[in-house]
Amino acid sequence: MLRASIAVIIAAAVGFAGVMMANAEAGRYGKQKVVYHINYPGGEGGKKYYGALRNIQNHINAVGKDNLEVAVVMHGNGLGLLMQAKDDLKLQGNVSNLKTQNVSFNVCSNTLRGRKIDKDKDLFEVFDEDIVPSGVAEVSRLQGMGYTYIKP
Questions:
Q1: Cα distances (angstroms) measured from residue 148 to each of 5, 106, 130
Q2: Beta pairing, strands 103-108 & 68-74
Q3: pLDDT, tens digit, for every residue of 48-67?
Q4: What is the edge-to-edge ordering of all strands in the sheet holding 32-38?
């Protein structure tokens, strides 16, 4: 009986320590604003796109979704991420999951027009409010607003 009580106390202490460490990590990073810039092809099987989305999720896990503003800006070959997601259920799930954590996915209007891409037919879940006039200009605008630039 004494062993069981000691085991419960130790388990509770370890759990409490884990919560305290998680809270300390959130405090370590504070509030952040970041722009993830994607303008490259996904490679075989979309490996690079999966890696980029994994980096974003890891960032959210470390900082906490309430302490983080994330904008993903895609132009040029980067639109391949949402083109591939149109038919790739796993990629759809990753994008949708990030959207539920307040990650915005911004799509370049210049690329849509220049490559004759229809946002409704060719891309996964892109709405009018997701379209920005220029991907490059959007990255610069966000950096001017204090967003940290990340190219995964």
A1: 49, 16, 20
A2: parallel
A3: 999 999 999 999 999 999 99
A4: 131-132, 103-108, 68-74, 32-38, 148-150
